[in-house]
Design goal:
The protein folds into 3 domains: 80 residues, Arc Repressor Mutant, subunit A (Orthogonal Bundle), CATH 1.10.10; 136 residues, Aspartate Aminotransferase, domain 1 (Alpha-Beta Complex); 243 residues, 3-Layer(aba) Sandwich (Aspartate Aminotransferase, domain 2), CATH 3.40.640. It is 42% helix and 12% strand. It is built from 16 helices and 15 strands. The protein is globular, with a radius of gyration of 23 Å.
């Protein structure tokens, strides 16, 4: 989201074009100035103009025709233009949800049934995927990675199950180490274990540091993959108060640790799903120090670290770890490709246990996708790809936030994510998000009800929505329809 009240140049240009459409100067089907022409006319860089046009395209004002340029969308009527103009202008955003206050008691975890049913429904009959946990696949360079995949197959190299026993393929490990070094974390290749996505990394790390019946501290709300791991291993979860801007309350965690044993802590310090916050540096340092003082392992989920909206890559808890107590987990599923499910972990002092568990659980990670991703990273272009993805996600975040703020009922609160691709939305207390989920699904719209993100029913009136998909008339209609459902439920 915007961090300054000063309006960016790209947004100013987008407003000017929208105003021209609204006034009739530009009519449906008219061609808009080319990027180069607009750059000269307005004295802006080509990059700024491209960003403005991407925003206009995402909001449905214009559309691009390959080799022809940009045109005002024929179906974009005067009412739609008026809405877009309002949404693109500077205005106060809805308030954010407050800090969570869960009860300081451990609980059994039973969310898998709800999550499985929700995930199955996402692509059911071409449903609108506002409830999807994955970013829009169109953001990823799928064709290029497939080309590397094909080239590797044609080369005839070894691809057997035993060719990449843990820790994983050396080429991919080398690229992961290099990437961490570029983003401020110096590690040794021997620190890395390749996994089947971040989900396996989290499960292996949790299995390495705790046993059935142990209590694990988590954020509240927390990403349901964390709860899955706890449930799968027969452990208990205790939810820690969490602020939508600052993250987990370190003082509250310390107070709980002084009254009951906590076997481990599972956190997502950067662009947490569903809240979207980036934990401040001092809080990160304090959390790692607390873990070291009480010999409490910390499992750090960093799958969204590359999707930041700021100017610099966020730091990680692992950077403050001097005793090997932080087990860092990540994957390429949210930043490069979700099709291959390639992840990794830096398990610190628990490396031997994690590598052994990896061998016992899945033997090895498929060789071909490891090599294909390694080839892509070696060739370069990853940072250019990420810059485009971040810019697109930020624009789509602004658009969806504005539409929700305009059309959802009074009292709705929305997070202001610092990265990632999801919004956490607090609806009026009367709303039952599971009832909304079922009603929306019946009309081909998916959302993620708040029940999935906690061991309790504390988030009964909350939903999570994915804003990564290209803004289309279908998505706009889905937002408006959800607003109508909410209005009816409030009556």
């Amino acid at each position: 989201m915007k961090t300054s009240r000063r309006q960016p140049l790209y947004q100013r240009l987008a407003e000017q074009v929208t105003a021209s459409v609204r006034s009739g100067v530009l009519r449906p089907g008219d061609r808009v100035s080319s990027v180069r022409q607009a750059s000269q006319q307005h004295g802006m860089s080509i990059t700024t103009v491209v960003r403005a046009y991407e925003l206009l395209e995402s909001s449905g004002v214009i559309e691009s025709h390959p080799q022809s340029g940009y045109f005002v969308r024929p179906q974009f009527g005067r009412a739609g233009v008026a809405v877009a103009r309002t949404l693109l202008s500077e205005q106060d955003s809805p308030a954010e949800p407050g800090r969570s206050e869960p009860l300081p008691v451990s609980a059994e975890v039973d969310v898998s049934r709800h999550v499985l049913a929700t995930l199955k429904s996402i692509h059911q009959n071409d449903a609108i995927p506002l409830g999807s946990p994955y970013p829009d696949p169109a953001l990823f360079p799928a064709r290029r990675i497939s080309q590397y995949n094909g080239a590797i197959l044609r080369s005839g190299g070894p691809l057997g199950v035993l060719d990449d026993l843990p820790p994983g393929h050396p080429d991919l490990i080398r690229q992961i180490v290099r990437r961490h070094l570029e983003t401020g974390l110096s590690i040794d290749p021997g620190d890395v274990v390749i996994t089947v996505g971040a989900t396996e990394a989290i499960n292996l790390c949790l299995q390495a540091v705790a046993k059935a019946g142990d209590t694990i501290a988590v954020e509240s709300p927390t990403f349901y993959a964390m709860l899955h791991a706890i449930e799968r291993l027969g452990m208990r979860a205790i939810e820690i108060p969490t602020d939508p801007r600052l993250g987990m309350d370190i003082g509250a965690l310390k107070a709980i640790m002084q009254t009951q044993p906590i076997a481990a802590c599972m956190v997502m310090p950067n662009f947490q799903n569903p809240l979207g916050f980036e934990m401040p540096e001092e809080n990160k340092r304090q959390l790692v120090e607390l873990g070291a003082r009480y010999d409490m392992p910390i499992i750090e989920n960093g799958v969204y670290n590359e999707l930041y909206f700021g100017t610099a890559h966020p730091s990680v808890l692992k950077a403050y770890d001097k005793r090997g107590m932080v087990l860092y987990c990540s994957s390429f599923s949210k930043s490069l490709t979700s099709a291959y499910r390639i992840g990794w972990t830096l398990p610190g002092r628990y490396r031997e246990q994690v590598e052994k568990l990896k061998f016992l659980n899945t033997l090895s990670t498929s060789t071909l996708p490891q090599r294909a991703i390694a080839a892509y990273l070696t060739a370069g272009g990853y940072d250019r790809h990420l810059r485009r993805v971040r810019s697109t996600l930020l624009q789509r975040c602004d658009i969806m936030s504005a539409f929700v703020g305009r059309f959802f009922p009074a009292g709705t609160r929305i997070t202001r994510p610092a990265g990632g691709y999801v919004l956490w939305i607090e609806l009026p207390a009367k709303i039952d998000s599971m009832a909304l989920y079922r009603q929306a699904l019946a009309e081909g719209i998916t959302i993620a009800p708040g029940r999935l993100f906690s061991t309790s029913d504390a988030y009964r009136s909350f939903i999570r929505m994915n804003y990564s998909y290209s803004w289309t008339p279908e998505i706009e209609r889905a937002i408006r329809r959800l607003a109508e459902m909410l209005a009816t439920m409030l009556e």
